[in-house]
Amino acid sequence: MNKYRREVSIEILVGLFMFTVLIALSIFTIVLSSENLLKKSYPYEFVFSEISGLREGDNVFLRGMNVGRVKQTDLQDGHVRVYVSLDVPLHLRHGYMIDVVDASMLGGKHLKIYEGTDDAPMLGENVTILGSKPVDMIEELAAAVGGFQAMIDSINAGEGTLGKLLKDEAIYNNMAQISEGLMQITSRIESGEGSLGKLLIADDGQLYEDGKTMMANLRSISQNLADGKGSLGKMMSGDDMAYDDLQATLVAIRSISESISEGEGTLGRLVRDAKLYDETALLVEDIRAAVDDLREASPITSFGSVLFGAF
Fold first, then answer.
1. Of the candidates 212, 191, 216, which has an alpha carbon nearest to the alpha carbon of residue 202?
2. Residue 47: predicted pLDDT
3. Closest CA to 43 of 94, 87, 80
4. How far apart are CA 255 and CA 239, in angstroms?
5. Which residue, 89, 94, 93, 48, is CA-closest to 67?
């Protein structure tokens, strides 16, 4: 009897141990899978043309936060249907995007959801949510390498500006001539030839002294202006008399021009009155005719003066 009781106790202890182990394994499984059986989930279905290696269990991100996982992928009618379980409801608007993106440089995929702008209208109910075609980084890299290789082949063939520069000897000769010309110019400058050479190489100090004198003159002129000396200095100084005189002169000139324009005064009438202009023109013609008559009669007058002067 004691032996039987001992065996029963051992079996009970083993059973309790195995039951505890199973409970611990269940808890660890739930924790490691990030599943919360008591938390409410929101199932969604997305339709893709292809998913580029997206698998069940991959994460789903919304605004940079992990909000769920991919539960199942299914190929139907030439499209891939992706079923996800999210921790939060989606508020998709027009302009939304569902993208399959790389999880890291080492591989892996995850879903990235963009709900759309806040001012866009909401999607209606029972609308099929379409995902964007994923970008295959390997294909893009292969295309970039192919384009780079085509560019290298074009350069090697002497095509384009760079290819001609590398292959055409005439361009090389022209570049060599240009380089030689620049070296000659540099040598002449270093020898003090030409205006630039004299400016850079001259060591007699004359150019420096001339520049120093010119700067001193400019400084003196600016100081005179600041001190209010001269007409321009007075106009720029704080003394308002010169400014007031100039303003009064401009006002007077404007008043005179307005009077002439309105036909006031002799000059204004001469400008505005056509009759007065015609009379002035006739008077000038009469004066010219009288002067001509006097010029023609001057020999006769001179002869009479001589004749009668003898008596």
1. 191
2. 93
3. 87
4. 25
5. 89
Cβ-contact 59, 13 below 8 angstroms: no
Contact 123, 46 (CB under 8 A): no
Q: What angle do CA 26, 29, 32 make, to 5 degrees?
A: 150
Nearest Cα to Cα of residue 46 among 71, 18, 24, 65: 71
CB 90 within 8 A of CB 41: no
Q: Which two tokens stand for residue 246?
A: 């100039």
How many beta carbons lie within 10 A of that of residue 98, not counting itself?
Answer: 22
163: amino acid identity, one letter: G
Residues 6+ apart with CB under 8 A from 242: 231, 234, 235
Q: Which residues contact 155 (CB under 8 A, 6 or more apart)?
A: 162, 163, 166
Amino acid identity, residue 58?
Answer: D
Count the Cβ atoms, other than its own, within 10 Å of residue 79.
15
Tens digit of pLDDT for each residue in 56-73?
A: 989 999 998 999 999 999
Termini Cα distance of the chain: 202
Instruction: Give the CA distances from residue 103 to residues 35, 108, 113, 284, in Å, rounded to whole numbers and listed in that order.
Output: 20, 5, 14, 104
**Bridging pattern class, strands 129-130 and 42-48:** parallel
Rounded to whole angstroms, the Cα distance separating 98 from 85 reads 14
- Token pair belonging to 2: 């004691």
Residues 274-292: tens digit of each pLDDT: 666 677 778 778 788 777 7
